[in-house]
Amino acid sequence: MTAHDVLALANTIADCLADPDTAPLGPRTATAERQHLAYGLPGIALLHIERAASGLGPWQRAHAWLAAAAQQPVTGGPDSYPFYGAPAFAHALACAADHLTGSYQRALNTLDQQVAADACRRLATAHRRIDAGHLPALSEFDTIRGLAGYGAYLLRRNAASPTVRTVLDYCVRLTEPVTYKGEDLPGWWTETGPSGRPDDQFPDGHANTGMAHGIGGVLALLALAARRDTLVDGHHEALRTILAWLDRWQEETDHGPVWPYWVTRNELRTGRLTPAAPRRPSWCYGTAGLARAQQLAALALGNTSRQVEAEKALVAALTDPDQLKATTDSALCHGFAGLAHVAARAADDAHPTTVDQLRDAIPALLTAVHPPGIDPEHATTVLVQDEERGPGLLDGVAGIALALLAPATATAPQSAWDTCLLIA
């Protein structure tokens, strides 16, 4: 599969989603999740913003999608979170404003104030929870709904702001161990299941490792901040605490190291993971996202050996037939396009001994997204007609087209659209 073929698919998808008035949105995107970055209009806007910033498409399409996203009042305050409402729209608007001098600044300034205020309100609640000796909800700290996601936006907008530092102070505090009901637990242990709700399969809760909903996002945020020379007391120690946890639960397979999606209380007590079938190595959960987070942490700490180990783990995950067999779609969140994008971003920072291995893994991932001999129009039609996934960023065609650009062109994103994923 050539880069030209992959870009042809991305172009066709972008053309299909050119106009918000005629694009096949489906009921999920057009109504309930219209303001959602993962499924709604702001995520589709990111596709056209990145293409315009890269000289691959017109800015008019980006303007049209941003205008469509702003047609209804944007949700703020307690009902919003990083991937929904004001923070989601702010992320898309910032990606455009960075390339359009003077455009959107008034709206963006208002949104920045709203996002910072919401983050501070959440921080106050989180610290009260810690002071009371209670365990956190996943939505307190994760990337999609919590403070890691707020940190991603605030760091990108102004790494030196006091609010960024307060988010990082919280992240450091989250890594401190807690004693709960007589047991020593990591500070990010939650009493619920991975859905964030009580779950009979997780009667005593779990420690989530994922990038989307677990400590992986916190690790990446701390690492990215450190690489921007934004450090708080205990910063490096917090990085090492999370890395030590991942080291503790690393498993060796015939193809390389893997990490679990989560650790249960029984596994914590016995010190052994329950045997499980190979899992997909996605951004949201699994080895791909965690390997990138560990690579970033190693770069922040200046630990070359750990960096190379993380990069080799990513290569192994991207080439392991068992893990790839568990990958069943092309989505950005947990599919082949997302894996290709993570690989491309990791390759940009990779050690000379592993960079070629990472880049060599990309073509097969792109082929899985767009097999040879398949007409781009037909492939787009099939993808767009998948109503369950929709046209959005994380699960849908907009995210697939967006994730194909960096690996197909060997060029880093121009709009910083993927900062919301905490992989850059």
Concise account of the structure shown:
The protein is mainly alpha-helical and 424 residues long.
Q: Could you walk me through the main structural features you see in this protein, from its secondary elements to its overall organization?
A:
It contains 19 helices and 6 strands. With 424 residues, it is mainly alpha-helical. The strands form 3 sheets. It has a two-stranded antiparallel ribbon. Strands 3-6 form a two-stranded antiparallel sheet. Strand 4 and strand 5 form a beta hairpin. It is globular and about 60 Å long.
Shape descriptor: globular
Element string (H = helix, E = strand): HHHHHHHHHEEEHHEEEHHHHHHHH
Strand fraction: under 5%
Structural class: mainly alpha
Q: Output the radius of gyration.
A: 20 Å
User: Largest beta sheet, briefly?
Assistant: 2 strands, antiparallel
Mean pLDDT figure: 94
| Total of helices | 19
**Span between termini:** 26 Å
Helix content: 40-55%
The count of β-strands is 6
Q: Low-confidence segments, ≥5 residues, pLDDT <50?
A: none
Strand order across the largest sheet:
1-2
